[in-house]
Design goal:
Strand content: 25-35%
Mean pLDDT: 91
Oligomer: single chain
Number of domains: 1
Number of helices: 6
Shape: globular
Radius of gyration: 19 Å
CATH superfamily: Glutaredoxin
């Protein structure tokens, strides 16, 4: 079957719901490298780098962290060894930075200590805590939509936020929702982002607000240990509850619980900053077949139906 649209064009044309499409990740590791020894950023570069070469033992070590997500990052026309850790599953999410002498230094990182409410240490020194960082998926060799949509958004965001705060990243997940990006330290994920969205997204994030119409989900919910399906259901419910109740502040809602019901339904509840409880019922079904990546055979994707239940 010949496709006349790219995966991102199809997703936009179908007005695909974005919320509830990002999988859980407690800890993000961001490693600056153009990966010349691996032939550059290939389609599955993180997997390839984890199986052989200089990065293989490093990625195995970092992968020992709880629900770790590893991304390579880069900026055009520069080649350094910047490294960032974002810890999202905390009351106060944090992101840390170090400039490495050698990538092998990462083998000394205390993975077990990342859950503690203290700065991680590397070679006897605490990593510096920073306020914000943005990663835009621009790995065109994974899917051409990531480059076509991601590169202009990367540039627009860098123009508004400052180049030192914005990086191109390898595959974030969900390239049909390109441009897709992550705003740290909270690990808030957006999709279908266009260059004209950059300034609004940046200003809202700095002010502590979420753009719900572009919201895909977040890395993790503090103090919650959810499986993937429950995490996705929580993300879908969160966006609808925020829109219905106008609770757009990042700190306005805190996830209380996700409870499995009959027939694949889930009950999701959030506590508001004013003490109120917001509840929803989320059903998950499979969509009609659609492209998940350019050139791949279409396949059904999970789709969430959210019904607001009560405000207590």
């Amino acid at each position: 079957m010949q496709m006349t649209m790219t995966c991102a064009e199809e997703s936009r044309a179908l007005e695909e719901t974005l919320a509830g499409t990002f999988k859980p990740a407690d800890t993000f590791f961001l490693i600056e490298s153009h990966l010349p020894d691996y032939g550059g950023w290939s389609g599955s570069i993180v997997k390839a780098a984890g199986s052989s070469g200089e990065f293989a033992p490093i990625l195995r070590h970092l992968g020992g962290a709880r629900r770790a997500k590893i991304l390579f990052i880069r900026r055009p026309r520069r080649d350094g060894k910047n490294f960032f850790i974002a810890v999202t599953n905390q009351d106060e999410p944090k992101i840390y930075h170090a400039e490495l002498d050698e990538y092998a230094d990462l083998l000394e990182l205390d993975i077990g200590g990342l859950a503690a409410d203290s700065a991680p240490r590397l070679k006897g020194r605490e990593l510096a805590r920073i306020d914000e960082l943005y990663t835009v998926c621009a790995n065109g060799r994974h899917d051409p939509c990531c480059a076509a949509y991601g590169a202009p958004v990367y540039q627009a965001l860098a123009d508004h936020a400052g180049a030192e705060r914005v990086w191109q990243a390898t595959h974030i997940g969900g390239h049909r929702m390109a441009a897709t990006l992550i705003a740290f330290p909270q690990g808030i994920v957006y999709g279908h982002v266009d260059p004209h969205d950059a300034e609004s997204l940046l200003m809202n994030h700095r002010a502590g607000y979420i753009l719900t119409h572009k919201y895909r989900g977040r890395g993790c919910y503090a103090d919650q240990d959810l499986d993937e399906a429950a995490h996705l259901a929580a993300g879908a419910a969160e966006a609808v509850i925020r829109d219905e109740t106008r609770q757009y502040g990042i700190a306005d809602l805190r996830l209380k619980a996700v409870t499995d019901l009959n027939d694949g339904q889930r009950h999701v509840s959030f506590r508001g900053s004013n003490g109120a409880t917001f509840s929803a019922e989320v059903g998950t079904r499979m969509s009609a077949p659609r492209q998940t990546s350019c050139g791949d055979e279409p396949k059904p994707m999970p789709q969430h139906d959210v019904r607001i239940l009560a405000v207590i």
